[in-house]
Amino acid sequence: MTSKKLLPTLLLLALASLILSLSAGSVSIAWEKVLYGSGLDYEVFMQLRLPRALNAFTTGALLAMSGGLMQVMLRNPLADPYVLGISGGAAVSALLAMLLGFVSPQFASFLGAMLSMLLVFGISGVAKHTRLLLTGIVVASGWGALIALILSVSPDAQLRGMLFWLMGNLDDSGSPYPGLFALFFGLLFVLPLSRDLNVLGRGDRFAMSLGVSVKTLQWKIYFICALLTSVAVMTAGSVGFVGLIVPHGLRKMGGRDHRILLPGSALLGGTLLLLADTLARTIAAPQALPVGAIMALIGVPIFLYLLARP
């Protein structure tokens, strides 16, 4: 597929997945009542389906766009938004909030993600990729130990909700506005940097020879990656594979230019998680399954297929 056709195709797929998500559910709704803006069907649509669909789309878009940025910054096609332990910090903060009840889990997860980012960057220094990766892995392991400790001392009444959050869950995702604002301002921030990112993908020295301030660019991108990931984790908990497979797959489809890759990742990542959430809501209806588990079942074969392709 040519790069000119890639974005329009992804936009059509995103719209189709949104329509499918809004139409599917354990309860049928009458669209004429939704259009008239009255009745129970209208309330179900406006209060439940539309916010959840928007949250699913923005979460996938944020993770995929963050993954695309991480992969070019670390020059590693297997990097993803959680490689620096951001999700671990968010998970520890959210679980503590659930256990102690002193603040909302969504807000706590956002603070935890930002704290983890500052911790990793403060220890490693942003310019040293290998040291940054190793620091992120160690910090993530530490967060994992704290998560296990919190779960082991949590009462049974709260344990189910904690486990669902850790697996990725959109049942209590709340307002879609934080995700929409983060996606809009994220694109607004990173698209003007696309040329510099294209150059940076060929190496730090090559970028510096063309006048790119590599260290400044790295700080900007690492910060926006942490911000996008923290909002995604705040909305849906820990959802894996989206940030890994989407930008990696788009590059194999010819979308190497970051003017195409970044908005394309947002569209495809949002579409993929929206379809996963639709499955999570419908295959065992009326019970909703964790969207992170469904996404993992989808992501594993896709990832293996991408690895097998030349």
Give a verbal description of the structure.
Helix 4 packs parallel to helix 6 and helix 4 packs antiparallel against helix 7. This protein has 14 helices and no strands. The mean pLDDT is 84. It has 310 residues and is an all-alpha fold. The protein is 76% helix and 0% strand. It is globular, with a radius of gyration of 19 Å. The protein has one domain: ABC transporter involved in vitamin B12 uptake, BtuC (Orthogonal Bundle).
Question: Separation of termini?
Answer: 16 Å
Number of E-state strands: 0
- CATH homologous superfamily? ABC transporter involved in vitamin B12 uptake, BtuC
Shape: globular
Elements, N to C (H/E): HHHHHHHHHHHHHH
CATH topology-level name: ABC transporter involved in vitamin B12 uptake, BtuC
Structural class: mainly alpha
Radius of gyration: 19 Å
- How helical, in percent, are the residues? over 70%
Q: Please, what is the average pLDDT?
A: 84
Strand percentage lies at under 5%
CATH class equals Mainly Alpha
CATH architectural category: Orthogonal Bundle
The largest pleated sheet is described as: none
Total number of distinct structural domains:
1
* Count of individual helical segments: 14
Unreliable spans: none
Indicate the topology.
Elements: H1 3-23, H2 31-36, H3 39-73, H4 86-100, H5 105-124, H6 129-153, H7 156-166, H8 177-190, H9 194-200, H10 204-209, H11 214-236, H12 242-252, H13 258-282, H14 291-308
